[in-house]
Amino acid sequence: MRNYVSRHVLPLFLLTSFVTGQTPTPDPWKNVEQAMGRSGQAQPDGAYKFSMPRKDLSVTVAGVQVKPGLALGSWAAFNNPGKHALVMGDLVLTEDEVPAVMSKLQAGGIDITALHNHVLHESPRVMYMHIHGMGDAASLAKAIHDGVAETKTPGPDSAPASAPQQDIGIDVAQVEQALGRKGKVNGGILQFGVPRAEQVTEGGEPIPGSMGLATSLNFQPTGGGKAAITGDFVLIGSEVNHVIKALAGNGIAVTAVHSHMLHEQPRLFFMHFWANDDAVKLAQGLRAALDQTNSKKP
């Protein structure tokens, strides 16, 4: 009797399916994650994002040791897991990594839409490669995986996530009040994402805001209530010089103005910035610049 039972007990998931009359729903992103070689994270707007922080790099800007969450975070995001997917991303690279990564990506059907700096006077020099692809999500993911494999980007972190830091060295509540928005602490960096109010499209298709279309504001505490800030404003052409004036008037340097995409509508420009000063004062300056844009209200 014991042997008979052991040979005829159904696996739990099949038994559950038999009893309920339902079959288990497969994870639609499993093949994409396997191709990327790491797990992703679902975004509130429906995109699926893979983070690849350059924890291997030791970069300084104006004497500040830059944490990955401030300005060294490679990423790729997909709008769906199927045969007609859109992927966009931004890869953080050393100068020596650029040629091999570009070649591998293009061989895999990934377009390069921009290659440039985001900050000034960093050591060693860091380049940012923006990418775009359309087609089968798993195939696009494999191409990105192969491109990233040409770098020293660390593999997925197997260590359990640490508890969020409650005190990171700046007054988070006052910074949030100055910006009029809630942020999140990630790896010791206070981060804000501010979407644009209008819908951005590519080839007539809407692009989720989490695929690089939200203004990014990052604060890294540097002691004594100060923070180094960087990120990028997502702007239409008529906003560019108004934002430059607002930032400059508040002691925030503009470090780059350029495109990240090729065929988006409306046409967008990305403005990168840097400062290291009192965190609340800088938040007030960033708020003055945000007020010059068509950003979503909090």
Give the low-confidence spans. 1-19
Number of domains: 2
Which fold name fills CATH's third level, the topology of the largest domain?
Answer: Alpha-Beta Plaits
State the separation between the terminal residues, measured CA to CA: 66 Å
Instruction: Characterize the quaternary organization of these chains.
Output: single chain
Classify the beta-strand content into a percent band. Answer: 25-35%
Q: Helix and strand succession?
A: HHHEEEEHEEHEEEHHEEEEEEHEEEH
In short:
The protein is 26% helix and 33% strand. It has 298 residues and is an alpha+beta fold.
List keywords for this structure.
single chain, 298 residues, alpha+beta, Alpha-Beta Plaits, 2 domains, six-stranded antiparallel beta sheet, 33% strand
Topology:
Layout: H1 2-8, H2 12-20, H3 30-36, E1 41-42, E2 48-53, E3 60-61, E4 64-65, H4 68-71, E5 73-78, E6 85-94, H5 98-107, E7 111-116, E8 122-123, E9 126-135, H6 137-148, H7 172-179, E10 184-186, E11 189-195, E12 201-202, E13 205-206, E14 214-223, E15 226-235, H8 240-248, E16 253-258, E17 264-265, E18 269-278, H9 279-290
Characterize the structure shown:
This protein is of the alpha+beta class. The protein has 2 domains: about 25-155, 2-Layer Sandwich (Alpha-Beta Plaits), CATH 3.30.70; about 170-298, 2-Layer Sandwich (Alpha-Beta Plaits). Helices cover about 25% and strands about 35% of the residues. It has 9 helices and 18 strands. The protein has helices at about 1-10, 10-20, 30-35, 70, 100-105, 135-150, 170-180, 240-250, 280-290; strands at about 40, 50-55, 60, 65, 75-80, 85-95, 110-115, 120-125, 125-135, 185, 190-195, 200, 205, 215-225, 225-235, 255-260, 265, 270-280. The strands form 4 sheets. Strands 1-2-5-6-9-7 form a 6-stranded antiparallel sheet. Strands 10-11-14-15-18-16 form a 6-stranded antiparallel sheet. Strand 10 and strand 11 (about 190-195) form a beta hairpin. Helix 3 packs parallel to helix 6, helix 7 runs parallel beside helix 9 and helix 8 packs antiparallel against helix 9 (about 280-290). The longest helix is centred in the middle third of the chain and has 12 residues, at about 135-150. The protein is globular and about 45 Å long. Residues about 1-20 have low confidence and may be disordered.
